[in-house]
Amino acid sequence: MELLEYVTGLLEGTLGSPWLWVIVFLVSGLDALLPFMPSETTVITVAVLIGTDFAQLALLALIAALGAWLGDCLGYTVGAAAGPRALARLQRGPDGVRRYEWAKIQVRRNAVLLILAARYLPGGRVASGLANGSLGYPPRKFVPLDALGAGIWAVYSVLIGLVGGAAFADEPEKGLLLSFALGLLLVAAIEIGRRVRVRILTRRRAAAGTSDNGVRVEP
What we know:
Elements: H1 2-12, H2 18-30, H3 39-50, H4 54-90, H5 93-117, H6 124-134, H7 139-167, H8 172-208
Helix pairs in contact: 2-3, 2-4, 3-4, 3-7, 3-8, 4-6, 4-7, 5-6, 5-7, 7-8
């Protein structure tokens, strides 16, 4: 609780200062390469502190989305640049070739879900950018999809902070706790949905007699 109060006080001290937006932009962007950066926590905290100033909340969502999008594009670029070396190691030997083909198929098959939803899971943005970049997912598809995902994420984070700030206008720490609880519930729901989806797809492939890499399994 003391740490929460410290972070709240630190960000509260930057309200009304351009440095607040610089912090939001940088943290939202760097989270795509450094998974320990608290991008969602920062956006939610600032939203709680702003309260019901909708113009400021809209600006917060815009800056957070822009930072997240540019950070993801940077992660994609890093993945694309490192791709040849990483893929060369991955494809060593028959097993390596099979792993590479499996990974490529998974990215191609689940790219939209990976780009839009992975950002809500710990380290998901790092994995999404690097995987899509290194495995050659087309940038013409990645860039607009990621812009959509970053926008949805920013609005979601701001709305969660708004709920907490509105519920506890005079007690921002309690508002933060409520907002974080709502965020955790959403992340849990996404993870449960992902696992259910994987099980359903696995059963369908088993029924169709195909393996995860799309190769038909002969009885």
